[in-house]
Design goal:
With about 300 residues, the protein is mainly α. It has 14 helices and no strands.
Amino acid sequence: MTSTGTDRQPAWFAWVFLVVASLAFGASGPMARLIAPASAFEAAFFRLAVAALAMGLVASRTLLPALRALPGHEAWRILGAGAVLGLHFSAFLWGIGHTSLPAAVSLVSLEPLAVVVACAAVFRHLPTRAESIGLASATVGALVVAQGAGHGDHQASGDMAIVGAVVLFGLYVALLRPVRHLGVVASAAVIYAAAAVTVGLGIVLAHVAGLGGPDLWRLDLPGSSWAAMVGLGLVPTVMGHTLVQAASRTLRPTIVSLASPGETVAGIALGIGLMGLWPQPVEAAGASIIIAGMIWPMAAPHLSKAA
């Protein structure tokens, strides 16, 4: 047992989680650019519907019996996590389209802090000194990357939506931590289904209230939009968020939260590998600071033992 995990997971699980989850989240940026003319809310609904269907098919044989045996308090917690995830996706995707990229990157870098604050408030789970240093380093690194992220129209409404998404992400991880009685695949299927229903109800209520917005059941989208939304459902959602749900049960909250700044590093790496887009010096420097912040909380206990 180390400070990066619990006795239910080997020490290497934290390293694998951060690498794979960061890569899965990093793929969301290129895919999100291809969803047009679908709106942010349509994209949130369909990616969650795809993820719920995929996980439901995997857990088809065990899902219903497991749900019947699930304690009521945990069932409500899983449904709550799904509703919060749906609100998180809606706020995040809408905010990205209504503010500048540097502002979005800077504000999203606060997600690890939101996770730590939420878990500290709910479970009195405070980060260790090494985790605090790593968290601060990763956050600073993301802020440095944002300085080289170009320019765009900066809007307060978009900023507030991103801040709301950040707070919701912290609450989402905190709700996941006590889940124990339902397997990861089955709980993921329920969470994504609840999230999709939450987004769908939000769109319907917007129509009823006369606020306009997209047609929830619009199917006349180009193939590129459908491919992008399916990709968003299978890669950053099924792979990335399911890993977060699994890791939240056993790893310390600070380690789980570091997948968020890891997304920035993964996005830069994927840009180099897939499109030949090399980062600016300031972006490379920020990415190096993020990597150091991700490594330090897991390496520090081993270094202190060696010393």
